[in-house]
Design brief:
337 residues, Rossmann fold, 34% helix
Length: 337
Amino acid sequence: MSTDKHVYPHHKVMMITCKGTTGMFSKMKTDLERLIPHTKKESKFTTALPVSALMEVIRLRTCDHALYWEMRQRTELILWATSYPEGPTVKFQVANLSTSDRMRYQGNFHRFTRPILSFSHEFDQLEKYELRIIKELMKRIFATPHLHHKSVPFVDHVIAFRVREDGISIDFRVYSIQQNTNIKQGADQYSLVETGPSFVLIPFQILSSVMCGDILWRNKNYVGPGERAKQQRAREFRQQQQKIREKEIYSQRDKTLPVDPIDLALSREGFEAVYGKISTVDIFGGNEGKYLMPPKRILPSAGETNENEDEEEPEDEDYEEDEGEFESEDSSQSSEK
């Protein structure tokens, strides 16, 4: 009786980061280690050595795949995904990163369970060979080997790779498979609930060998951190030069105030320009060539005002005499009583 069994290849993935990574990126690396049971941890790689020196580290750890997380200028995270010993190597820029603890996803799954890998239809297009290379590399890294000693023998989550609208960026999402308790007629028995981590992979270069080699493909729309900083400095310089030119133009302006059209219309010249010159006779002064103006109020002179005041004084005396008579009558009436 034959006792031969089919031998499945056991892939080993080395997960390594460079020195200087922040806490959020370290947490994301821990989330990915929970997804890949056949991973091997390694201490942080120094940036003093070239990246090609990782080939020797991969060989010593007897791994056939590697994920290297590189931090550039503490703002940009670069992912190197490679296959040992022949390559190729794909370089990604990691954007829109969110860990499982940061977003507080509702989904959950067991540790080291087998995943279902889901790829969108763009990965199968013949004209996009770079996406087909990425698909094959992701399958070897994230697919749990058959009968692996660390894997749990059931499936409870899905790892999805979706190409975005730009045709090159890839959405990485993880969903847990949950059974619906309240099943209505025609409803699905299982549903997908998103869990972490989630990020966007922007491939910008494919190399022919392990961490080095000829460039097989390059993303023409990718702009590195150094080039972005250079463009930002050039943009700020142009804005500064524009402000200087505006100040020079403002200093050379004509400082005389413009003529207000309303004041011009209400002036004599503006009135004559519209209605023409009107020759009339001033009924108060008898001068020709002037406009009819309302008569001024004639105020009395100082001497006339004093005479009027003196004439009005007797009226006040009569009024005082009348008041005295009324007072005497009131006093007589009170005495009689």
